[in-house]
């Protein structure tokens, strides 16, 4: 009996060793297979890398621009072009590399080749323009910048415009290089960048064609001139093309507020809803309508119009106002004050809380140094406990006329 037990123990021990050996062999085989698989993956990735012109070109640029390893960069560009002989970024990089290696003839030959490849292709056009700029190839650069400005919007167009204005600061040369079909883009760039002199010069080229289809651009230009304190130029354009027969613009609200230039500007106000309304009843005029919703103690100051006028004169403003159920002690009124100049502030009385269409009239003085006045609808905050404004207000038929009186420096003395 003891011998049988001892024999079974030895059999169990040998079985355990056998199983352990099998486990070790299986683990080794799995490890070997995983290693081989990883090697195949690495080889596949390396193979894919060698077939990718984008990656090869990117690495070539790193070698060229960061490591200054020109030979390695040249080899990588060549590999990229073997994979894809018409991959333009690789050609551009090779042209730049050749230039840095003082191989100007080679660089120019490459640029000429890419110029033929990229004809009428938008992609990479800016990259080619930059190579042309580095090689001082104004023939190609001029065509590329003109094409980009005309055909490719967004940041690329802006970059091209910036370069064009720096290369050809004279507006006539600029238009000659970029073409008349890019004139609108050039003009808008001067507005965006507040280039007054260049904008005025381009406008002189554009103006003989009239403003049909260009109203938005011209208004933006006038507004830019205003922001740069070029009031005389802004007023001259405004009077000639938008308001030749009146001093005040759109006083009857026959069109929506322009929100720019010398037109009506109406801002947002908490507690106020506004719109231009057509007369609902017979003889009811079109008017600016304001509804006060009794939610705020309104400080109204952003409904106004800048009016170009001649200094040294006294003017009169006429209009009509109507109200319904206005509350509180502080109610709307009209006022005139100097635009970018000191002038006596003149105003109407406040409207009544309930009144039918009522004529309003007041005179205001324009000092000799003033070129424009602001006509504004105003309501001051109330100090009463019950100060939230409610009710309705209408305004229309505003016009300004000269009174024939002069306002001289002597009149300005206190």
Keywords:
five-stranded antiparallel beta sheet; alpha+beta; single chain; 414 residues; 10 strands
General description of the model:
The relative contact order is 0.07. Strand 6 (333-338) and strand 7 form a beta hairpin. The model is unreliable at 40-46 (pLDDT under 50). This protein is α+β, with helices and mostly antiparallel strands and 414 residues long. The chain contains 14 helices and 10 strands. It is elongated. It is 48% helix and 20% strand. Strands 1-4-9-6-7 form a 5-stranded antiparallel sheet, with no helix packed on it. Strands 2-3-10-5-8 form a 5-stranded antiparallel sheet, with no helix packed on it. The protein has helices spanning 2-50, 53-66, 70-83, 88-100, 104-117, 125-134, 138-151, 155-167, 171-178, 183-192, 196-206, 215-227, 231-241, 409-412; strands at 264-266, 272-277, 287-293, 300-308, 313-324, 333-338, 346-347, 355-366, 372-379, 390-406.
């Amino acid at each position: 009996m003891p011998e049988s037990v001892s024999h079974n123990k030895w059999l169990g021990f040998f079985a355990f060793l056998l199983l352990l050996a099998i486990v070790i062999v299986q683990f080794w085989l799995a490890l070997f297979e995983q290693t081989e698989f990883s090697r195949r993956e690495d080889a596949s990735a390396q193979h894919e890398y060698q077939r990718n012109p984008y990656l090869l070109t990117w690495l070539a640029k790193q070698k060229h621009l960061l490591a200054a390893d020109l030979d390695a960069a040249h080899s990588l560009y060549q590999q990229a072009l073997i994979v894809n002989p018409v991959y333009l970024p690789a050609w551009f990089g090779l042209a730049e590399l050749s230039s840095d290696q003082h191989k100007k003839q080679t660089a120019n030959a490459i640029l000429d080749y890419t110029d033929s490849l990229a004809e009428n292709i938008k992609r990479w056009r800016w990259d080619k323009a930059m190579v042309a700029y580095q090689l001082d190839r104004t023939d190609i650069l001029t065509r590329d910048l003109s094409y980009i400005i005309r055909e490719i919007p967004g940041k690329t167009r802006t970059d091209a415009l910036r370069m064009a204005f720096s290369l050809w600061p004279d507006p006539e040369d600029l238009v000659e290089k970029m073409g008349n079909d890019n004139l609108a883009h050039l003009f808008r760039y001067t507005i965006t960048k507040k280039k007054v002199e260049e904008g005025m010069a381009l406008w002189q080229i554009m103006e003989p064609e009239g403003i049909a289809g260009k109203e938005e651009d011209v208004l933006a230009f006038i507004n830019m001139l205003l922001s740069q304190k070029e009031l005389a130029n802004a007023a001259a354009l405004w009077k000639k093309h938008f308001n030749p027969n009146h001093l005040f613009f759109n006083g009857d609200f026959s069109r929506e507020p322009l929100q720019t230039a010398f037109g009506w500007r109406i801002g947002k106000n908490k507690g106020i809803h506004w719109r231009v309304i057509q007369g609902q009843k017979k003889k009811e005029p079109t008017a600016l309508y304001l509804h006060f919703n009794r939610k705020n103690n309104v400080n109204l100051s952003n409904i106004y119009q800048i009016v170009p006028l001649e200094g040294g004169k006294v003017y009169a403003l006429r209009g009509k106002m109507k109200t319904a159920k206005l509350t509180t002690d502080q109610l709307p009124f009209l006022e005139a004050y100097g635009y970018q100049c000191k002038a006596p502030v003149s105003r109407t009385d406040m409207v009544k809380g309930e009144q039918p269409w009522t004529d309003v009239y007041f005179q205001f003085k324009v000092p000799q140094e003033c070129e424009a006045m602001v006509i504004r609808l105003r309501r001051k905050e109330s100090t009463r406990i019950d100060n939230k404004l409610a009710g309705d207000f209408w305004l229309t038929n505003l016009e300004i006329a000269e009174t024939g009186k002069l306002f001289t420096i002597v009149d300005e003395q206190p």
